[in-house]
Write a structure and sequence with these properties.
single chain, 3-stranded antiparallel beta sheet, mainly alpha, about 70% helix
């Protein structure tokens, strides 16, 4: 055998797994040992260790063992593995999106209390629950026009950039809806801070270009294609935002 033989103990040490885990992976066929010594002990090769690195990586991403065995370790299915990784990445983004909704709700509560008002607990609870069901991948199937795609590609070179924008939009919208429900006036300091952040966001993703601004407005006019939680959020936030931004611009 040309490759170096690696004992189960050494393989466990290199991978950070336990010997029992490696034995389990062997038994269920995820990473069969290359052989056994005359004494009956499992051993692995350097090629096995490369495969094991992949297994550890995929497990760290949350893939179930069955999926790793059936799809990710099959060299003939590299394209499918790429698709699975893309889906797993989106799943993680959805989890981040869910957590960010909760963080935004907490921030809104803190700011409203600091302003001497009572936070709208039920509204924020509803947002945390409903927005947590939104699948961000739905936006990949949105009916954008060719012109919109061209414009948006200038501001969002990668899908990650688009998701970052969505996160900011959602955070500010949650706060606007909560401020309105709590009785915060659009001219109050926290409302004006929100307006300034909204203006900074829109400037960043439009560059002040009127044609680019209209592209976003066209998407806004197609709310029927949005998810229900997103529509409900902006409907509860937009009037307050409009008033706060109008005051901000007049200063």
């Amino acid at each position: 055998m040309d490759e170096k033989i690696i004992s189960t103990g050494e393989a466990a040490k290199q991978s950070g797994l336990t010997i029992r885990t490696l034995q389990h992976y062997d038994n269920i066929g995820i990473l069969p040992a290359s052989g056994r010594t005359e004494g009956g002990r499992r051993y692995y090769t350097e090629s096995d260790m490369v495969k094991l690195e992949h297994v550890v990586f995929y497990r760290g991403l949350g893939f179930p063992l069955g999926q790793i065995k059936d799809k990710l370790l099959d060299k003939s299915l590299e394209d499918r593995a790429s698709d699975l990784l893309a889906r797993q990445k989106m799943l993680l983004y959805n989890q981040i999106n869910n957590l960010q909704s909760s963080i935004s709700a907490i921030e809104a509560c803190q700011e409203i209390e600091a302003a001497g008002k009572n936070p709208p607990w039920m509204l924020l609870t509803t947002f945390m629950q409903s927005l947590g069901t939104v699948d961000l991948s739905n936006w990949y199937n949105f009916d954008f026009s060719d012109e919109q795609k061209q414009i948006f590609s200038e501001h969002f070179p990668t899908p990650d950039d688009a998701i970052d924008f969505y996160m900011v939009w959602k955070r500010l919208s949650i706060k606007a809806a909560a401020y309105n429900e709590a009785g915060i006036e659009p001219e109050e300091a926290i409302a004006q801070k929100l307006a300034a952040e909204w203006e900074a966001m829109t400037e960043k993703v439009t560059g002040g270009n009127v044609a680019h601004q209209n592209a976003y407005l066209e998407v806004d006019q197609k709310r029927a294609a949005w998810s229900p939680p997103e529509r409900e959020l902006i409907e509860k936030a937009e009037l307050f935002l409009q008033k706060a931004i109008e005051i901000f611009r007049s200063k």
